[in-house]
Amino acid sequence: MDKSLRRPVIAGNWKMNKTPAETKAIIEEMKPLVANADCDVVICAPYIDLYAAMEAAEGSNIKIGAENCHWAVSGAFTGEISAEMLKAAGVPYVIIGHSERRQYFGETDETVRDRTRAALNAGLKVILCVGEVLEERNIGITAEVVRKQTKVALSGVSKDELANIIIAYEPVWAIGTGLTASPEQANEVCAIIRALIAELYGKDAADRFVIQYGGSMNDANADALLAQYDVDGGLIGGASLVAEKFAKIVEAASK
Ligand code: PGA
């Protein structure tokens, strides 16, 4: 087994932060700092910032993503954005199933599955988020929770389509709390996800499958987390809002 079969992906998740003007400024600041990255670099921004982000990132190695998409191609869904619209706008990546969507906006394993389906149909690359809440970890059902979330989301996804999916393991108790999973805890669950991918799609697919860790990853702890065998990158919230911090994580993934 060889970790180098997988190119790490460092993705920023800006959540509900930054105006279009701020977007342009921070991407301009990031560009030279991440230009020599030996990993994929993605910034996922609010819908309203996507054009500014793509314009600023043009010609650089920074790719742009959205933070969600709807499961329908079009229709009477006020306030929503479809995967087809993102594709038509030139956005290559989309985050699906983030725990804040699950927690605050009624996202379920089934809607995550349907949004994933729509994104793949539109030709987008998906960053699929899974992770347990603290109570689930405390009663010892982390593996079951993460396996179920992953299995439902991937139901109907073919082996070929798997190439367009990354999973971000994000323990909910570590998101935005400053509490990071230890490198060993992160690796343990990423390994559980990889074993499930092997069960569903074969070992070869699993060996090549990118699994990120997310949850208070920052410039100080990225080295130790990214050194773990089953951790192939990070989904970064808070630290992706500061160009220098984000660039340091990109640097850690490039080693
Ligand atoms: P955080 O967020 O890095 O601020 O904890 C991670 C995420 O929610 O993707």
Spatial separation of the terminal alpha carbons: 19 Å
Q: Treating each run of at least 4 consecutive H or I residues as one helix, how many helices?
A: 11
Q: Just give the CATH class.
A: Alpha Beta
> Using only CA atoms, what is the Rg?
17 Å
Class by SSE composition: alpha/beta
Q: Which cofactors or ions or other ligands sit in this model?
A: 2-phosphoglycolic acid
Outline the biggest β-sheet: 8 strands, parallel, barrel
Shape: globular
Name the CATH homologous superfamily.
Answer: Aldolase class I
Total E-strand runs? 8
Q: Give the helices and strands as they follow along the chain.
A: EHEHEHEHHEHHEHHEHEH
Q: What is the arithmetic mean of pLDDT?
A: 97
Share of helix, binned? 40-55%
Q: How many structural domains?
A: 1
Spans of at least 5 consecutive residues with low confidence? none
What name does the CATH topology carry?
A: TIM Barrel
Reading side by side through the largest sheet, how are the strands ordered? Answer: 1-2-3-4-5-6-7-8
Classify the beta-strand content into a percent band. 5-15%
Short précis:
The chain has 255 residues and is of the alpha/beta class.
Describe this structure in words.
The chain is of the alpha/beta class. It has a single domain, classed as Aldolase class I (TIM Barrel). Helices cover 43% and strands 15% of the residues. An eight-stranded parallel barrel has the order 1-2-3-4-5-6-7-8, surrounded by six helices. α1 runs parallel beside α11. The longest helix is centred in the last third of the chain and has 19 residues. It is globular, with a radius of gyration of 17 Å. The chain binds 2-phosphoglycolic acid. The site of 2-phosphoglycolic acid has 13 residues, from β8.
